[in-house]
Amino acid sequence: MKKKIKIISICLIALFIVSSLNMTADAIDGREVMERVDDRNTGDSRHALMGMDLIDADGDVRPRVLEVWSQKADLEKDIDNTIMVFHEPSSIKNTRFLQKENDGEDDDQWIYLPDLGRVRRISGGQGGDSFMGSDFTYDDMKSREIDDFEYELLEEDVYNNYETYVVKATPKKPEEEQYAKTISWITKEHYIPVKVEMYDKDSGELYKEMKVKSDIKKIDGIWTVFSTVMENLDSGHKTNLYVKKRDNNYLLEYNSDINNRRFTQQFLKTGR
Predict the structure, then answer these.
(1) Which of 54, 82, 165, 231 could form a disulfide with 70 if both were Cys (CB 3.0 to 4.6 A apart)?
(2) Average pLDDT in the 8-32 region?
(3) Model confidence over 44-53: pLDDT tens digits?
């Protein structure tokens, strides 16, 4: 089984980030840190109601509400299926997005646009496009094979009161990736990425930053992040993604039963 790296996709899709490993005093290198990130247990399924605030450089906010279901399609191969349904605003209501991970191949992605009344497959050439006007791209949401990158442990650092490892990941095939490199701050206690820097492929300069903006709390025995922000440093535009409440309680479920039909083209098109 090939290991997958899902730092950005996990933060975006459900904000469910967990490690089942304890910190040891043994020497550790960059790849081992990322393997421990990958080895965390995220549950067999996840369900959440989420807010997605699009914030421009002047601070104006366009709020959105979406619901996310994610489930293991293959436990042995660590392959997930995920679907998102947008509820608000009315202009994008019932827009639905489906992603299916593949073992050793690029993930499949489709989007249903109600105004067009049809399902559109996201092609490889659209990977760098914005997802629903946010600062996340379609490629940001995909899983990656750990073997596709070289890793370097740059230093140990304290970020937002968390002891972290700082790891640089450089793609072995730069032509197939949208970033020249990423640098991640990974907590020693949880193996959770609390900050990720993404560097532009053309200029090599820092382009985007993703930061966890909430405390890391244990929900049903699982370490959980409730809010993360992605910022485009060129435009000053930000996307705040966070778990929302329904009936005064956070809608956040692990290991609940999800019908497999929810992850089909039929559900994507009809919502049923």
Answers:
(1) 82
(2) 51
(3) 899 999 999 9
Is 20 in contact with 158 (CB distance < 8 Å)?
no
Count: domains in the chain: 1
- Structure tokens of 233? 């440093």
SS3 at position 270:
helix
Say if residue 44 is exposed, middle or buried (CB neighbours under 10 Å; 0-12, 13-18, 19+): middle
Distance CA 194, CA 163 (A): 11
Does the predicted TM-score (pTM) go above 0.85?
yes
| Contact partners, residue 242, CB within 8 Å, separation at least 6 | 15, 50, 51, 53, 213, 214, 226, 227, 228
Is the omega angle on the peptide bond into residue 89 within 30 degrees of 0, that is, cis?
A: yes
How far apart are alpha carbons 270 and 247 in whole angstroms? Answer: 27
CB 114 within 8 A of CB 98: no
Q: For the domain that residue 118 is a member of, what is the CATH number?
A: 2.50.20.10
Indicate the Cα dihedral angle 270, 141, 160, 155, nearest 10°. Answer: 160
Distance CA 186, CA 195 (A): 7
- Residue 70 burial class via C-beta count within 10 angstroms: exposed 0-12, middle 13-18, buried 19 and up: buried
Sign, CA dihedral 23-26-27-32, equals negative
How many CB atoms within 10 Å of residue 51? 16
Of the candidates 169, 196, 224, the residue with the CA atom closest to the CA atom of residue 34:
169
| Domain interval for residue 51 | 4-270
Q: 245: which 2 tokens? A: 């409440």
Give the confidence band of 175 by pLDDT, cuts at 50, 70, 90. very high
**CB atoms inside a 10 Å sphere around CB 157:** 12
